[in-house]
């Protein structure tokens, strides 16, 4: 009797679980592709590159200036007394230290700007995904990076990209 119940359960479990999975539609979106290829994402990328280039140019100028000052101080080594030489070395070290602090602040600031701007894109994308899933009776929309294998028909990236491009053309860097 117990053996019959076991086989009965074993046979019917796949039918019940299959029915529950068949009811929910699943789709996936390549979020990285959307970030890279949307109009807003490309605008953001271009702005970030421009700020980064400006920062690099400023860093290069300040580094050159600091190297020049270092050479000048070293050239005065034999002329100055040891106390005056130490004062100039100390002043140069303080300049280098403040330069490094400023550089790190600018790098961190740029990173924060990039993240906050990407959050804006994601916040704008969220209602688009919700509306699309409601219209097309989709239960779950997943990011492509979390999927090992899936049918290409389940990929809605291009459709979502078009909807996002119609809604947002440009993101302004904070």
Give an overview in words:
The chain has 174 residues and is mainly alpha-helical. The protein has one domain. Helix content is 75%, strand content 5%. It has five helices and two strands. A two-stranded parallel sheet has the order 1-2. The longest helix is centred in the middle third of the chain and has 54 residues, at 82-135. The chain starts with a helix and ends in a 7-residue tail after the last helix. The model is unreliable at 15-22 (pLDDT under 50).
Summarize the structure.
This protein is 75% helix and 5% strand. By secondary structure, the protein is mostly helical. The protein has a two-stranded parallel sheet with strand order 1-2.
């Amino acid at each position: 009797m117990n053996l019959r119940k076991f086989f009965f359960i074993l046979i019917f479990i796949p039918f019940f679980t299959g029915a529950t999975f068949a009811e929910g539609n699943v789709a996936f979106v390549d979020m990285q592709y959307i970030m890279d290829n949307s109009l807003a994402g490309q605008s953001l990328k271009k702005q970030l590159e421009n700020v980064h280039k400006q920062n690099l140019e400023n860093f290069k100028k300040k580094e050159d200036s600091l190297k020049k000052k270092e050479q000048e101080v070293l050239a005065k080594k034999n002329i100055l007394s040891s106390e005056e030489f130490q004062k100039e070395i100390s002043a140069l070290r303080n300049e280098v230290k403040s330069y490094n602090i400023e550089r790190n602040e600018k790098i961190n600031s740029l990173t924060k700007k990039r993240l906050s701007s990407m959050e804006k894109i994601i916040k704008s994308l969220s209602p688009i995904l919700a509306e699309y899933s409601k219209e097309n009776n989709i239960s779950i929309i997943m990011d492509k990076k979390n999927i090992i294998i899936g049918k290409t028909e389940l990929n809605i990236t291009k459709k979502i990209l078009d909807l996002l491009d119609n809604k947002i053309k440009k993101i302004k860097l904070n």
